[in-house]
Amino acid sequence: MLPLSSGGGFTPPTIQDFFPEPILFSGTWFEFDRIQLVRMLMALFLVGVFVIAARRAKLVPGRFQAAIEWILDFVRTAVAEDILGKENAKKYLTLLTTLFVAILGFNLTGVIPFLNIAGTSRIGLPLILALWVYVMYIGAGIKKHGVGGFLKGSLFPAGVPAFLYVLLAPVEFLQVFVLRPVTLALRLTANMIAGHLMLVLCFGATEFFLVQEAFPAMKVFGALTFVSALVMTLFEIFVAALQAYIFVVLTAVYISLSIADEH
Amino acid sequence: MSSLILAAADTVSGNLATIGYGLAVLGPGIGLGILIGKTVEGMARQPEVAGQLRTTMFIGIGFVEVLGLLGLITGFLFT
């Protein structure tokens, strides 16, 4: 993923990094490229980890099981039960846990050596996840209040003077039916794009200063960019976890807004 | 005078989108500062509601941050 050095000087990363050459089925609808390969590897890895964890589940957890349980417990207590409440949490725990683990995994491929691109850094995967959330929170609202009740509850919030509904209803409509899923998907994708570009920039500059630059004093800058690249890698791991957390928290909030009782 | 400006324009190359993104991150930057600062203030005053404050802060961060990221992607889209 690093800009290749063909003696052509420093090449900054471009948006083309996210649209690599297809490696299979080129020209058909099933074009298969590097990012999809990375996604597939990560999906297999996640399924494998959880199958193994479920098979070997013991009453007294070992270190591996304890780590998995910590993640599952984090989603249950810090996200689901905190926002949705104990009774509702059970129903949506599967959704939230799947989202959290999947997004965390696909985000982390961005910093794993040789994979080096986040599975979520192209809009497709986040869009599917956001659509799933969209269907779930609208479905939850309709199941609880019926179509009319859900629309009334979300478009005409209580406690507002009636004449303000002229302004408020269209804004709320846009918010509930368009902006929520779009921003969910965009936030994740744009974060991963920005992170990847920043990493490539740092490592590319390091390669340029240390390998291509002939003037010895410039190597100092190479050391500087290398250190900053390492720091950025740590920061990207933090961002990967943070984005997974924000995604599930917002999902839980949207669901809880949908099923909230009117006052 | 105008020839001076033209000469200056000839030497400056690059993309205006870069400046645009610089401007675009100002707002969210200020927003995040206020948001997180106020949360810390709240936590210091009432440590017992720290968990709740943190969750609310992250929700808010999600909304503010997307503005800055919109600036990033529009830079790519409209060039």
Structure, described:
The complex is a heterodimer of chains A (263) and B (79). Chain A has 263 residues and is mainly alpha-helical. Chain A has one domain (15-259). Chain A contains six helices and two strands, in the order ββαααααα. With 79 residues, chain B is mostly helical. Chain B has one domain (15-77): F1F0 ATP synthase subunit C (F1FO ATP Synthase), CATH 1.20.20. Chain B has helices at 2-11, 16-45, 50-77. In chain B, α2 runs antiparallel to α3. Chains A and B meet through α2, α5 and α6 of A and α3 of B.
SSE topology sketch:
The complex is a heterodimer of chains A (about 260) and B (about 80).
Chain A: E1 22-24, E2 32-33, H1 34-55, H2 63-84, H3 86-108, H4 124-155, H5 165-212, H6 219-259
Antiparallel strand pairs in A: 1-2
Chain B: H1 2-11, H2 16-45, H3 50-77
Write down the domain tally of chain B.
1
- The fraction of residues assigned to DSSP E strands of chain B is under 5%
Biggest sheet features of chain B:
none
CA-CA gap between termini of chain A: 54 Å
How much helicity do the residues of chain B have? over 70%
Overall outline of chain A: globular
Dominant shape of chain B: elongated
